[in-house]
Amino acid sequence: MSKKFKDDDYWQIASRQMSIVCESEQQRFKDCKITVIGCGGIGGETIEMLARMGVGELVLVDEDSFDLSNLNRQNFATVDEIGQAKSEVAGKKVKLINPFVKVTSYNEHVDETNIDNIIGDSDIVIDALDNILTRVIVSRKAKEKGIAYVHGAIHGTLGQITTFLPNTESYEEMFSLPSFEKELTDSIIEELKNVTSGIPPVIGPTPNLIGCLQAFEAYKIITGIGKVTVAPKILTFDLLDLGSFLLDEF
Question: 242 falls in which pLDDT band (50, 70, 90)?
Answer without folding.
Answer: confident
